[in-house]
Write a structure and sequence with these properties.
This protein is an all-alpha fold. It has a single domain, classed as P1 Nuclease (Orthogonal Bundle). The protein has helices at 5-17, 19-22, 28-39, 46-54, 60-63, 66-70, 99-102, 110-121, 128-144, 155-158, 172-187, 194-201, 205-220, 224-229, 238-257, 261-266, 273-306, 314-320, and strands at 162-165, 168-171. The chain has a two-stranded antiparallel sheet with strand order 1-2. α3 crosses α9 (128-144), α4 packs across α17 (273-306) and α15 (238-257) packs antiparallel against α17 (273-306). The N and C termini lie far apart (40 Å). Bound molecules: 2-acetamido-2-deoxy-beta-D-glucopyranose (NAG) (4 copies). One 2-acetamido-2-deoxy-beta-D-glucopyranose (NAG) is lined by residues 108, 112, 116, 120. One 2-acetamido-2-deoxy-beta-D-glucopyranose (NAG) binds at residues 88, 153, 155-156. It comes from Knufia fluminis. GO terms for molecular function: endonuclease activity; hydrolase activity, acting on ester bonds; metal ion binding; nucleic acid binding. Pfam families: S1-P1_nuclease. Belongs to the nuclease type I family.
Length: 330
Amino acid sequence: MQPTKHHLLILLTLVTTHLHLVASWGSLGHRTTVALSLLHIPQTHPAHTLLSSLLHNQDPTTAGLFPDKIRYIPSFAYTAPWHYIDALDNPPHQCSINFTRDCLPSEGCVVTAIANHTERVADQTLPFWQRGQSMRFMLHFFGDVHQPLHTENLSRGGNDIDVMFDRQRHNLHSVWDTLIPKKIVEIAGDGGVLGAAQRWDLGNETEAAYAWAEFLYSKYGHDDRVAEMVDHVCVHDAVECALRWASEANAYVCSYVMKGGLEDLESKDLGEEYFEGAVPIIEEMIVKGGRRLARWLMMVAQDLHDAGISGVDEQLLCRNSEGSPGCGAS
Ligand SMILES: *[C@@H]1O[C@H](CO)[C@@H](O)[C@H](O)[C@H]1NC(C)=O
Ligand SMILES: *[C@@H]1O[C@H](CO)[C@@H](O)[C@H](O)[C@H]1NC(C)=O
Ligand SMILES: *[C@@H]1O[C@H](CO)[C@@H](O)[C@H](O)[C@H]1NC(C)=O
Ligand SMILES: *[C@@H]1O[C@H](CO)[C@@H](O)[C@H](O)[C@H]1NC(C)=O
């Protein structure tokens, strides 16, 4: 059954109302990816207008958490497989993604989801709210496709691997999803992350994400090597690009995440040396995700612009900024 617009609005309201209750530190990586992308889009670029219009002015880092809020709602359970691609490889000995083998057409995966919503976000024949939903999915999937354990079937992407992190038991998946990013921001005392750490203590994840993004921007924003790494962006060949990104992340499953095998992972506290080694990988994932998202957003907005379609809800924009040029008097 297709949810109606009315249902969706009720749902969105519930989700937004309860956001402060359910938002976990786990969303820090997602928020930071989106926050970093915003820093890479020039202020006057139409991508900003497209975003504020499709998201009804919601903060984009919050909008990008929407897919995690709905995936456990039964009528949206079909979206759960869109968050990952379960590579049936053999880590730590052999890592690889094979699209035919790993992405079931009946369910889809993060690669086909990126292609699907890239198409839908710009599809003028779709109702506006559906394009907004696709935008929220995209803001989210740029994070997921860069997380190594979202590209691995073994032990459900590490969810079934019990490990120690700072003297507490966790599963390996959540170590990568939430604990490492959280610790990076918490312990960072110098070099510019301090602002983020202070805000983190105040418990405002949105501010922590923006501050961490600013730190990453100043550290890598003008690094030409990073520019090369993010060069290809999928708008017209989305499956091919998304598959390449997933394969990059998947390679880290063998080269670092599960490098020593299960026994090794279970024999030590991952909050120590393992954490130190993971920091540059997490930073690289977020930087790549954020910069690729920025390029994607700009290309989508530019394509709409070139086609002579503003791609935005003019009425909504005018309601939000009465008296601006082109809006007329009301
Ligand atoms: C990918 O998987 C399919 C289906 O299992 C198989 O036929 C194909 O040979 C695989 N391709 C590669 C490059 O391993
Ligand atoms: C594309 O997204 C729409 C809206 O979420 C969904 O109904 C449809 O099943 C998706 N198609 C594919 C091939 O994933
Ligand atoms: C994929 O992972 C699941 C859950 O750990 C496991 O039951 C299944 O056997 C795995 N599939 C393959 C082909 O290894
Ligand atoms: C976090 O900070 C943002 C931006 O300053 C603010 O809009 C938001 O209300 C804050 N959230 C909480 C839960 O304090």
